[in-house]
Amino acid sequence: MSRIDVKKTYKLFIGGQFPRSESGRSYEITGADGKFIANPALASRKDLRDAVTAAKSALPGWSGATAFNRGQILYRIAEIMEGRRDQFVAEILALEGGTTKAATAQVTEAIDLWVWYAGWCDKISTIAGATNPIAGPYYNFTIPEELGVVGVIAEQKESLLGLIAAIAPVISTGNTAVVIASEKRPLPAITLSEALATSDLPAGVLNILTGKVSELAPWLASHMEIDGLDVTGVNSKIESELRIAGAENLKRIHRFNKAQSPERMLAFMEAKTVWHPIGV
Amino acid sequence: MVTLVDGSEASLLQYLAKLSGVDKVGADQRAAMLGTRSIKTSSKSWAIDMAIRMVDLTTLEGADSEGKVRAICAKAVRPDPNDFTVPSVGAVCVYNDLVKIARKNLDLNGGSHIPVAAVTTAFPSGRASMKVKIQDTRDALTDGATEIDMVIDRGAFLSGKLGLVFDEIKAIKEICGERAHLKVILETGELVTYDNVRKASFIAMLAGADFIKTSTGKVTPAATPPVVLVMLEAVRDYYLQTGIRIGVKAAGGIRTTKDAIKQLVLVNEVAGPEWLNPQLFRIGASALLNDLLMQRMKADTGYYSGSNYVTLD
Predict the structure, then answer these.
(1) Are B303 and A49 a contacting pair at CB < 8 A?
(2) Which fold has domain A29-277?
(3) Are B248 and B205 in contact (CB under 8 A)?
(4) Low-confidence ranges of chain A (pLDDT < 70)
(5) A56–B303 CB contact, under 8 Å
(6) Per-residue CA distances from B232 to A258, B217, B227, B240, B266 (Å)
(7) 8 Å CB contact of A222 and B309
(8) In which band, very low, low, confident or very high, does the pLDDT at B2 lie, cut at 50, 70 and 90?
(9) Is A85 on the interface with B (CB under 8 A)?
(10) 2.20.28.120, 3.90.1170.40, 3.20.20.70, 1.20.1260.10: which CATH number matches B9-300?
């Protein structure tokens, strides 16, 4: 007798849990060869709202953790991903096509990116902070701090690398994030969320939604709880719409073209200046 | 008015013995089914405003101070300072010793129409002598409370001394008289079964309660939908027997607009639309109000609001 297939249900990742969409919807994705691959959840704006709530409540804990501790946790994510390397390679091959060599290279680069940003966690404030010269009996420091909750629409083409290049710098500095995964290639993002759930990352720091960017992005851009937005994954026409929607609470909206860059961290940081009287 | 019991323990027990029991599975299922109702657009806006008018804005912490009470009083009158169309809440609920401060600050803020509710009778445990409980209530009334939230003696109830529970409520009701509404807190989280909740609801109503209230907010589970359903059925049945409408207050664990709207659906479907007003249904809450305000902003502006746009309490 042949064995019955055990098929996987692909779900969202919100507040450390794996819920289905509250709407009960899902959508079909096909591989590079046009064949059916999976039915991931089609997130609704209410799922997005729940994700933002989860990200907001995770913010005090995550931004309050020491930078060193955040670095350790980012490194731990790299360790856990290493154990799922074959799964990531298989998913990239199925969705993006190409060669095994290229897919393996993408996974390696993505894992190394976590390590790279893990190292930056406790260094960015030293590099970007300053002791300011002032005319008065004060010490004056400028310290970059986290911005808050950041929305991420990750690059759509390289489904794993684009995603990690967007989220690693955002959370490394103490932000929490709501991420819209690649619309046509969401599987590596879902697998990543399973890795995140077992990697000491506190619940709610990263929330990953699968679904239609055109449906979710306007709600993300207009949400008053979101302080910054990475629009690397949308075209310039949608980007301008999102910039208009995000103007209400002066969101910081950025587009990036380099995966490895401390600028990606600083884009979602805020400078705090401290005056300290000398002799006290 | 129909007299159901003559005040003696014997007649009370006789009456309670005839009460129908609660079908637990049925109650759970009905509450869950009613919880799936979808309330949208204009109905939702109506429900949000109704829920705001039903909120007993509550602060019951050991750390409560004059400043905290001043802040919630201002918020009770004008929940959203940027929007005049937001209605005031149903009442402000504080500990006994803060009643005077609450009354003063409500009046100063133009909220003389908002009643102050005081928790008395050794809230939340109710473990004190009757003398103390009576004095506790008198103090609150003297300071200007027009709603008294008393707790029942759960220990007595669970050990079968139902007459004692009845007499205590009756004594406090006599002190309240016409000066104050009496809300009787059953603390359903400690009553164990739905049958007990129904029985305690009837004891409170027979002893003269104007409202029956689920919980103190200090014990979980609190105002779960099935418990509120059982209590709404009790007030409905009591109305059918006597023609008197007793109010219900759901308190504890109602934090989101969705939870609040579920409660309103229960009220409408179980007790009836007559109960859908702040005179007969209240929601005891503190965090809920901010969520209601954020949802209201969303309905007005079309985008989701954030916690930076409501007060920190």
Answers:
(1) no
(2) Aldehyde Dehydrogenase; Chain A, domain 1 (3.40.605)
(3) no
(4) none
(5) no
(6) 61, 19, 9, 12, 8
(7) no
(8) low
(9) no
(10) 3.20.20.70
Pairing relationship of beta strands B281-285 and B247-251 according to DSSP bridges: parallel
Residue of B nearest to A22 (CA): B36
Distance of CA B208 to the CA centre of its chain: 16
- Output helix, strand, coil percentages for chain A, rounded to the nearest 5: 45, 20, 40
A253-279 in b/e form (b: 16+ CB < 10 A) is: beebeebeebebbbbbbeeeeeeeeee
Q: For A10-32, how does the pLDDT look when each residue is reduced to its tens digit (9 = 90+)? A: 999 999 999 999 999 999 999 98
Closest CA relative to residue A107, chosen from A174, A204, A191: A191
Chain A residues within an 8 Å CB radius of B302 = 222
Angle, in degrees to the nearest 10, between helices A67-83 and A161-172: 160
- Any idea where the domains of chain A sit in the sequence? 29-277
Q: How far is CA A41 from the centre of its chain?
A: 18
Task: For chain B, give the longest Cα–Cα distance.
Answer: 60
Q: Which residues of A touch B304 (CB under 8 A)?
A: 49, 52, 219, 222-225
Determine the Cα–Cα distance for residues A39 and B14; give it in Å rounded to an integer. Answer: 61
Q: What is the pLDDT of residues B22-46, one digit of tens each?
A: 999 999 999 999 999 999 999 999 9
Residues of B in contact with A226 (CB under 8 A): 306
* Residue B53, C-beta contacts closer than 8 angstroms, at least 6 positions apart: B87, B88, B89, B90, B277, B278
How far apart CA B312 and CA A202 sit, in angstroms, is 24
Instruction: Compute CA distances A268 → A175, A221, A239, A245, B159, whole Å.
Output: 8, 15, 17, 18, 61
CB distance from A22 to chain B under 8 Å?
no
Residue with tokens 């989101």: B256
Q: Name the nearest CA neighbour of B187 among B119, B137, B134.
A: B119
Q: How far apart are CA B51 and CA B284, in angstroms?
A: 11
The pTM assigned to this predicted structure is 0.91
